[in-house]
Amino acid sequence: MQDEHGFIWLAMLEMIETPLSGRKVLDIGCNRGGFLRLLHDRAEIGSGFGYDPAPGAIADAHRLAGARPLTFKVAETVPTDWSGFGAAFSHEVLYVLPDLASHAAAVFAALADGASYFATIGVHTDSPLMVAWHAEKAAELELPGPYGLDEVGDVFEGAGFDVAVGRLPMRFVPVRAHRSDTHADTSLSRWLDYYYRDKVMFRFTKTRR
Q1: Helix, strand or coil for residue 118?
Q2: Which domains does the chain have, with CATH numbers?
Q3: Greatest alpha-carbon span in the chain
Q4: φ and ψ at 134, to 5 degrees?
Q5: Are 207 and 160 in contact (CB under 8 A)?
Q6: Tell me, what's the pLDDT at 182?
Q7: pLDDT tens, position by position, 36-95
Q8: What are the respective helix, strand and coil percentages of the chain, to the nearest 5?
Q9: What is the pLDDT of residue 2?
Q10: Which of 103, 132, 165, 198 has its CA 20 to 30 A from that of 207?
Q11: Phi and psi, residue 189, nearest 5°
Q12: What DSSP state is assigned to residue 146?
């Protein structure tokens, strides 16, 4: 998973304008904890907290964390006793959530004033490649939507966030990961269009009150 997503995670880090060093960071849908390990090792975060609904993934996250100050929990949403985060992240989580408004409210409550939630999404109505994928997989995976980027922005603005969005500064895209059987009918040109044009990062900033 880290080999497949590592180039995306590095592009996400390049988007961050303020230092993460020493901060308490939340990873939403953390899977096996690879992104938090990267944040600890490269960005020197103070502590990391991640949740995911998959028990097996969380068990692996605990095992792979080693001595890093990382905490993981099996959960569907932000645990109510987690708060005061200086930054939060998610990668391809928003499109699977049936209730974006509840998610936005939960993250808003968990962030410190002035902190931002950086959410990367490529599965949305403005992405031709992912619209086709969503149509094929929606019933099997019980997916909502797909959501539009404007819809996502409106929901988080309604929750009290200041909303901004940008395209990720991609560098090289690994070819092998896009030559698997499931991707065999998709050209590299279409994948490049997806990564350089359609995969975006939202910055939802909790406004000071």
Answers
A1: strand
A2: 2-206 (3.40.50.150)
A3: 51
A4: -60, -40
A5: yes
A6: 55
A7: 999 999 999 999 999 999 999 999 999 999 999 999 999 999 999 999 999 999 999 999
A8: 45, 25, 35
A9: 47
A10: 198
A11: -60, -40
A12: P
**149-158 long-range contacts, Cβ below 8 Å, gap at least 24?**
149/121, 149/124, 149/125, 149/200, 151/100, 152/94, 152/100, 152/121, 152/124, 152/202, 153/202, 155/100, 155/101, 155/104, 156/100, 156/104, 156/202, 156/204, 158/101, 158/104
pLDDT tens column, 145-195? 899 999 999 999 999 999 999 999 998 988 876 665 555 557 888 889 999
Query: Look-up: residue for tokens 């969503």?
Result: 134
Kindly report, residue by residue over 100-129, the tens digit of the pLDDT: 999 999 999 999 999 999 999 999 999 999
pLDDT tens, position by position, 25-39? 999 999 999 999 999
Name residue 203's beta-bridge partners.
118, 164
Percent of the chain residues past pLDDT 70, beyond the cut: 93
How far apart are the C-alpha atoms of 55 and 6, rounded to whole Å? 22
Q: What is the pLDDT of residue 1?
A: 41
DSSP 26-84: EEET-TTSHHHHHIIIII--SEEEEEES-HHHHHHHHHHHTTSSEEEEE-SS--TT---
Indicate the residue type of 75. A
How many whole angstroms separate alpha carbon 110 and alpha carbon 100? 15
